[in-house]
Amino acid sequence: MSDTEHWPGFDREKSAQVLVAGGLTDRRARRTRQSLHETLMRLTVERGYDELSVADIAAAANVGRSTFYAHFTDKDDLLRSAMGTLRAALVQEHAAAGIDGTDLDRMLGFSAFMTAHLAEQHVLYRALMRGRAGPILLDLIRHALCDIVRSELAPGSRSANVSLDDELSVQFVVGAYMSVLTWWLDRGAKEPPSAIEAGFRHMALNGLSRTRKA
Question: Residues 37, 78: contact at Cβ < 8 Å?
Fold first, then answer.
């Protein structure tokens, strides 16, 4: 049973419209969502994702459950929204680097930012990877990285139009990185992020250079 089923007749869309009509500004809405994001992360570390209910999150964020449901359908929806900030940061970092796939030595630039971020927040990510949040988190990261790597290997192409060779390269790179990061986090991120990033880039770029020259 979903959390919204405990609220007979609750209309999430209508509730959101009422809140906006009542003077809920974009700034206030952003603050509410940000507070819920931060509360979810904090409680996940403290208590574990699987142990949390919407009521727990709303109470800790000092908002009502009706306000929660005006923004999110459930805690998984909240998690996906919170991880959207990571995706936005990755895209911004990649755009700022100006990597277009023509310079092999600069490719896979996502790994430096991503690995440093994971090292800084390794306690949170280890907590998220336990239980039901793990598959959601890893799937979100995988899709974000696939989009970024695809834009380097096949700039200007949509996912459906990428060649088989390029898509295999995308899946190879992202799959390798996901395996490395889960292994590293499981170990407590003991090794320096610079060493992890350098090792990954060396092996991945070596594989790509051979493939793209073939």
Answer: yes
Tokens of 195: 């060493």
pLDDT score, position 85: 83
pTM of structure: 0.77
Residue linked to tokens 């009542």: 22
Residue 12's Cβ-count burial label (10 Å; 0-12, 13-18, 19+) is middle
Structure-token match 């419209």, residue found: 17
CB atoms within 10 A of CB 71: 18
**Cα dihedral sign, 96-84-60-64:** positive
- Any long-range contacts for 166-174 (C-beta under 8 Å, 24+ apart)? 169/208, 169/211, 169/212, 170/146, 171/146, 172/204, 172/207, 173/108, 173/149, 173/204, 173/208, 174/142, 174/145, 174/146, 174/149
DSSP string covering 28-65: HHHHHHHHHHHHHHHHHHHH-GGG--HHHHHHHTT--H
Q: Give the model's pLDDT for residue 6.
A: 34
- Which is nearest to 106 in space by CA: 115, 96, 116, 118? 96
Q: Which residues of 139-153 are buried (b: 16+ CB within 10 A; e: fewer)?
A: ebbeebbbbbbbbbb
Confidence (pLDDT) at 210: 66
Q: How many residues does the chain have?
A: 214
Grouped pLDDT means (10 residues each) for the chain, 214 residues: 36 43 67 94 96 97 96 96 86 72 68 90 93 93 91 69 86 95 93 94 84 56
How many CB atoms are closer than 10 A to CB 56? 15
